[in-house]
Every structure is written in C-alpha cells, then in structure tokens.
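S1.2 Input.
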Amino acid sequence: MARLKIFVGGVHGAGKGIFCRQLVNHLIGEYVSASQLLNWNSKFKQVKNVSHNQELLTELLLKHTQQDATYVIDGHFALWNKNNECEVVPIKTFASLNLNIIIIISSASEIIQKRLERRDGVSYKLKDIIELQSAEINQAKLVADKLKIPLMIYEPTRPIFFNIIEQIEMMKNYTRNNILSQMLKTAIIRIDFTGLTNLRSFVNRIKSSEKIQKAFGKMVLIPKQNMSVSFRPKDIEDGQLPYTETQKSILYRFYECKMGGDSNVTLDVEPQSITLAVDCQRKYEGSREYSYFMGWVIDELLAFDQYVTINRIGVRKIDVQVLEADEPIEKYFNERFVVAHSWKSSPPKTKSILTELLEIDNINFNVTQYIDYTNDGRVRLIYDVDSFLSGDILEKALESGNSSDLLYHEMQDRMFDLFVSVASVDYLEFCKRLKTEQNGQ
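S1.3 Output.
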C-alpha cells in the first residue's frame, strides 16, 4: 500500500493545480495530474465517454505510481459528456485507486467562469458551471461515504490550508511519535553566531541558571589550537606569502546530560558556535526536549549581548545501517534511495554518493545518500540530512520569537518526512513495533 494517496477533485478552473503543488511541497511527495496522464490538452472540456476515460486514467495511475510512495493526484468526480451534459464518474473508478484522503477544491462559480474564459478562450454558461460543481461535490461525498475515505472541502479564499496539512499529518501511518528507528545514530543542533563580546561571561550566565543545572551535571574547559592565516601590510606590499599563526581558544563543554532519557549528550560552547550533540544509540526518546532547550539557549544568547548576530541555525540527523551478509538494501530503503541503483550496476564500486540541496517552506535541506564498505567488508548505508536557516529567512524567524518551535516542528518535521519518503515499509513497520515496545504497550 502507498504511503499516502490523496485525490484532489474539483471542476476545471477551481484551482487544483496550485493547491496540489503546495500540498506536494509540504508532504514530500509527487504530483500526478490526470489531464497530463490522459494527454488532455483540449480547451473544450467535454469527454466523449466518461466511464472509458476514467478506466483509462485508473490504468495509467496504477502504471505510473509506486506502491511505496506518497502521491497527490488531481482529477474529477463529474465531467461534461459529449452532449454537454453533466455526468458523474463511477464509484468503481476510485475503489481501485486505494485512496487515503479525498480533498475537493470548491471555488466561486463566477471566478471559475472567468478563469476558463481567460485560460481557454471559451465562454461557459454560469448555470452549467454551478451544476457541474454541485455534481462534483455530491459525487465526492458519495464516494467518500461508500469507500470510507476521509473527505475535506477546501475553499481557496479561506486561509485554512495549514489546517488541512495538520489533518493529513494525523492520518499518516508513520509519525515522529509512533516510530523508533535504530538507524538514527546522531542528532546535532548547532547555532553559528558572530559578535559575542565576552564568551566567558555568557557561559557563567547560563551555567548558573536553573535550566542548565537541571540539564547537565558537569562542565569542563577544553583548550583548542586553531590555525589561522594572517596578513601584515608589509607582506602585501612585498608580495610575500601570508604566514600562519596558532591561536588558542577555549571550548566549554557541558556533559552528564539529564535530559531526554539516558542519551549521551554534550553541549559545546565556542567563540562562534554552540553545538548540542546527541548519541541516539542510547535511550533516545526524541528531540523535543533538546530542541526546546536550544531554543532557550538562542534566547539567552540574544538577551545577553545586543551585538550578537546569529548567522545560521542547523539541525543534522545521520542514519546509518550496516548490512549483514546477503541482507538486501530493500529491507531498509525503497526506490527513492537512488544510490542503490548505481551501487548495484557494473562495474563494482567502492562507494556511491548522491547529494541534493532542497528548499521546503523557506528552509534549506542538504540531503546525502551514501553507500560504502566498512573496514570488515560489510556494506554500509548512510542517509544524512542537514536542515538549516540563514540570511533574511533566519532573521525573520528569530524576530517571531518562536525558535524552539522552528527547531522542533518546521525543520525536523520535514526532515522526518524526507526520511520516511526513502525508508521501506517493512522497516517502518519494524520501527512502529519498536516504539510500541518502548512504550510498554
């Protein structure tokens, strides 16, 4: 069964295309247009044989979609036939698609009329559009009722898009709360900044706070040797090469963490960065507490020194699986783990890497798929995702004052979606069982 198959219905000109593209961006899926599959390019919207047309669509959908992925499919529940009469699409068409959710786009008939005239140069009678949209909605309700599929009606003029996203998230088989992945090895939250005038005073400030004392048991100072390239004016005039100098700095490390179960966690405070590193191989219970803790650190940093500029906030999660002899990659990852294709092809390889830079909801994601060998000759699979904010987008996010929610929800919700999009159903089901066992259910 597919991760999620969402059918978005609505008459021509209702606004399905824009809505579907927005939905795909949020759900990390693919958009499939019925019109494109059917090569339906005619500006005239009459269909000679509605039943045959939709049977062909079903056949094409099954052919062009994978079972192990999320799809947003646009289409219709009612069409104009060759006699320009309103004809509904049979229920059996939708029964074979194994849909999870139906969404109907309902727009004002006058708006639809103007859109179609502007787009196709064809003038439709308002009463025909009203009749078709009414039939579309009624048939969608009937299909949803008969097939026991959740139905949502969305009006583009109403600002409820994110309510729909929240409802869809609740319908997913796999969420951040109901799976426990053994592949997740490390989670890192990092803040990069400039302009802090007194690092030691800032460390003393947070060290004395109740928040830190509840979170960590001890702190240690670690000397660091930093190599930097330096110029002198005379060097430049004489055309000499720059020389390097060693600068000493201090890293303040908080350890013996008391947050989030029994994970091995450290907090490193340095002159230009603050890093929380979590070893997820211990009793890792999720990143909520760590994310909200780092949100507090951001607030403390900005409150301590007005000259501080936060340049980047990043979250990195590294999933690693080492295969046993004859254990297939498909046990853990699906077709979207595309490095597996090149790994298996001739000639044999010692490593296979794919790195992509994505932007989702104004957040940047650096996604790396990696396969290589361990020292003992076993195949190692790595899925490494780094989400980060910088520039004007980061500045606006910090101004809103919700850095904790930003770290935990906006950034990591999408990171989770990216992982689920490549993980196999068998592995995700295994992760659900692990979570159930952890909860003692």
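S1.4 Remarks. DSSP finds 15 helices and 17 strands in the chain.
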